[in-house]
Amino acid sequence: MKQKMTERHINSVHKLRTEQLKTSTREFKARGSALKRCPECLLATDKCICNVFEPVDSNIAVCMLMYHAEYYKPSNTGQLICQMVEDNYAFRWERTKLDQELALLLKNDAYYPIIVFPHDSVDEVRQIDRVPDTEQLSGRKPLLIFLDGTWRQAKKMFIKSPYLDDIPVLELKDFTKGAYQLRESYHEHHLSTVEVAYELFKQNGEVNLGKQLEKLFVQFRTGYKAYKR
């Protein structure tokens, strides 16, 4: 039986998509655009996952920094993270300017920003292996920043966002086999954003959140592939 979603919960990816549609001068046409979709999760209406799980209360916040048009794509999994994490944010990435709300979020003393990204090209001084605990952070909440797009786009966002240059970087450990299979070459290790997220949550003390997010992803993947052409 479906559970009723908490009324006050806001999925920031859905909110961002709505805001971007208001100013868009061109309609985004995804593959399978003729399919009747839920306006929120973008799956076929009979496969909607919007009311499947309650968001999970946790000690982690998330911020999706999204490449242009990523929030329009029915295959996007960043929306699943914001559906399950109570404290969530989403912003469109722009190369030439910084969203002022994002700037304020990064400077907010209530949070400790951490970028989720491979350590291959990151200065050693910025590399961390685990999310620091609450005591280490003096009560600040970890804010995990996900660069949401293809691997090439994520790398571009990482390199060309100077406001991220001093933020510590967390890498997913010992997990390289993805089950996404909805896009070709989505990531160099074939992991979707949500797969990285739920494994990171499990590795960093948020096991229940990780497991619930994984279950949501499995249902999302099944629903998406049912009408994939």
Task: Write a structural description.
- The protein is α/β, with parallel strands linked by helices.
- Residues about 1-5 and about 180-190 have low confidence and may be disordered.
- Strands 2-1-5-3-6-4 form a six-stranded parallel β-sheet, sandwiched between helices.
- It contains six helices and six strands, in the order αβαβαβββαβαα.
- Helix 5 packs antiparallel against helix 6 (about 205-225).
- The chain is globular and about 50 Å long.
Indicate the topology.
Elements lengths: L11 H12 L37 E6 L11 H7 L3 E5 L7 H8 L3 E6 L10 E2 L12 E8 L2 H9 L9 E2 L22 H11 L3 H20 L3
Which term fits the overall shape?
Answer: globular
Strand order, sheet with most strands: 2-1-5-3-6-4
Helix content: 25-40%
How would you state the average pLDDT, rounded? 87
Per DSSP, what share of the residues sits in E-state strands of 2 or more residues?
A: 5-15%
Distance between the termini: 29 Å
Number of folding domains? 1
Counted beta strands:
6
Largest sheet, in brief, is: 6 strands, parallel
The rounded Rg comes to 17 Å
- Specify the number of helices: 6
Unreliable residue stretches = 1-6, 179-189
Structural class per helix/strand content?
A: alpha/beta
- State the order of secondary-structure elements, H for helix, E for strand: HEHEHEEEHEHH
Give descriptors for this structure.
229 residues, alpha/beta, 6 helices, 29% helix, 13% strand, disordered N terminus
Task: Describe the structure concisely.
The chain is an alpha/beta fold.
